[in-house]
Fold this sequence. Notes:
The structure is a single chain. By secondary structure, this protein is α/β, with parallel strands linked by helices. It is 31% helix and 19% strand. It has 14 helices and 20 strands. The mean pLDDT is 94. Bound molecules: inosinic acid. Inosinic acid binds at residues 11-13, 38-40, 125-128, 130, 132-133, 222-223, 227, 236, 238-239, 272-273.
Amino acid sequence: xxxxxxxxxxxxxxxxxxxxxxxxxxxxxxxxxxxxxxxxxxxxxxxxxxxxxxxxxxxxxxxxxxxxxxxxxxxxxxxxxxxxxxxxxxxxxxxxxxxxxxxxxxxxxxxxxxxxxxxxxxxxxxxxxxxxxxxxxxxxxxxxxxxxxxxxxxxxxxxxxxxxxxxxxxxxxxxxxxxxxxxxxxxxxxxxxxxxxxxxxxxxxxxxxxxxxxxxxxxxxxxxxxxxxxxxxxxxxxxxxxxxxxxxxxxxxxxxxxxxxxxxxxxxxxxxxxxxxxxxxxxxxxxxxxxxxxxxxxxxxxxxxxxxxxxxxxxxxxxxxxxxxxxxxxxxxxxxxxxxxxxxxxxxxxxxxxxxxxxxxxxxxxxxxxxxxxxxxxxxxxxxxxxxxxxxxxxxxxxxxxxxxxxxxxxxxxxxxxxxxxxxxxxxxxxxx
Length: 433
Ligand code: IMP
């Protein structure tokens, strides 16, 4: 199956990096299609930890082509730090490609992101303050600066001037900030251009060539379905579309190029930043999930909010992305949690029952979740490698989830290491490699 899309099914941090890393074994190319360095993947390989914000996690396989697609917003300073960091650890990055059409996060985007959040005060979104929203806003306003502009200092300078002009008022508090000096900014970005030039490419064409040649291409999503700009818990969302449909736009392929959609879901729920969270646990069970699951953001280090697995939201995500398979991560974190709960419907403050994810913001904000209680297990599962190794309640938990949302679970993660996984059901062809 040549085109495989991997997306998050919750509010991010589901462990997509690990699943991508595993599936990438069989793929020839991995392409990221949206988001920026608001994302963070941690991959543990042979006891060594790798953190990525921009570069697809497939880069650890030296024979795979890894692309940053046109749909990504890219902070060149961060990208350069990642490239440099990997090279210093002996990881070959010669197979990295960066779309010439990807938009650049500029210093003023970062400043405006922070200023916007401060202005919102209590109503703030809790963004990662990496400039993501302002950068996508400029892209839509056709004031964006793209990777290809780095290669022409004259054009770059003109575009920076044009982009900053309408922001004069909002940038006034930063007038004296050296980061905003036109000359210095142009110089700095030209330097990134020189460094990144060997990696700049027409990544859409590279995808077509790979797909047309029968290669397997993985479309790697960042963030997740419930943070989708159109379909998530707006306005508490990111400024891009992390759903599978966006892989076409963000990588430059057609819907027929995607043969499988994999959704990655944690065995419980987490969220960073503000916004509705019907299954949130603000008690000792929630604190236990934070501790056992090390629920602190890779990007900002913020403590994640935790809660019970929300099957109403998961069924919504399954349909929205038309998922073929699920990968359930962090099953081990649920060891010792008794009883286990999963949300199966919501009830609004007026008492109305919602079996489906409500589209109305006010309902979602005030909805409380209603649960099915499932038996827990006490045995550590980190050493389980087959379904049969799992305690019966853990198997039942997975079966319940799969039946509820109507999608087979193909993988279950039982620990941070890449070999701490269980393949369920038929061995996928992917495993053959
Ligand atoms: P932004 O993407 O930085 O604009 O942040 C918007 C919202 O998305 C905030 O609630 C962030 O916490 C959340 N967010 C962005 N990226 C990630 C991610 O990779 N994992 C989890 N939450 C994220």
